[in-house]
Hints:
With 359 residues, this protein is α+β, with helices and mostly antiparallel strands. The protein is built from seven helices and 20 strands. It folds into two domains: 2-263, Metal-dependent hydrolases (TIM Barrel), CATH 3.20.20; 273-344, no CATH class. The protein is globular.
Amino acid sequence: MHEIVVNLHMHTRYSDGTGTHKDIAHAAMKTGLDAVIVTDHNVLVQGVEGYYRLGDSSPLKATPVLLLVGQEVHDQDRDPQKNHLLVFNANRDLASLADDPQALINSVHEAGGICFIAHPKDPEAPAFKETDISWEAWDVEGYTGIELWNGFSELKTVVPTKLRGVFYAYFPQFIGHRPILETLNRWDELLASGRRVVAIGGSDAHARHMHMGPLHRVIFPYDFHFRTVNTHIFIPQPLTGDVPTDKKMIYDALGAGRCFIGYDLPASTRGFRFNAKGREQSAIMGEEISVKGGVTLQARLPKAADIHLIKDGKIIGIWKQSYAYTHIATEPGVYRIEAYRNYLGSKRGWIFSNPIYVR
Length: 359
């Protein structure tokens, strides 16, 4: 398997962002991403997918980046606008179905796509007149997964006043700590219920312009977001440069959960691995393996961190400041990894793996 780094869930001038698709692609190249997935609100932008390259005159040497396009679909007539769904790889615009989440999810599958509940918990921020836009339609079925960590939603949890907002506008590196706990708990509950639910991390980048008296600031530039919450995906071979081939590899892997969430600002999470070996088979994140005869779970980290092994939502092992861990699983369960590192004076969530399903 080959690891690529993808930033997903972002907006352009076609909805409520400020940049163009070209701006996003250039920011992605400057930050070393392999691909980005743009998801404007209720519009499927045509004709912009493909590989982007910096011009020959650019002093920066950067590999091309693959830009893909999806949608963030929600009912614009609803107030507040709850139930946002990220739609990837559908072959048509599905915004007209936004008022019925189950019908929307069904249509995503019919269109050959995959879908993820966006910012499941997205609290209000009264100081900035931002309303709560959390997901409420939890009776739906058939979605691929959830956006476990949303970089922009997390901002809303730390800005009780405008003054605090100004601080984070100038020092955004202090925002990121971990997924919102309610979202993390919801994911564990869904997994424990027997569902296969893929977790992804999204930046929700807008590059909004903030004005407060004489102060002006971009909240937050695309390239800042692209250095923070990313989804690392494992595809069967390196990207080929052929858009249809590479697009299929990315969405197949994403839909299967062969990925993890990395908070790459404290340190790059490239190189993290979590796998399982049994008597007759092996598995990586997103896959199933039989418990018969025992299963060896192994994790390797690119740098030392506090490693938590989670089984069915409960911590069953902690390894302090370790590069690796090994655990023999003798019971069925849903096993996943969390890793934490100290950064700017506090412990930050660094890696959140998708689970290995031991059956």
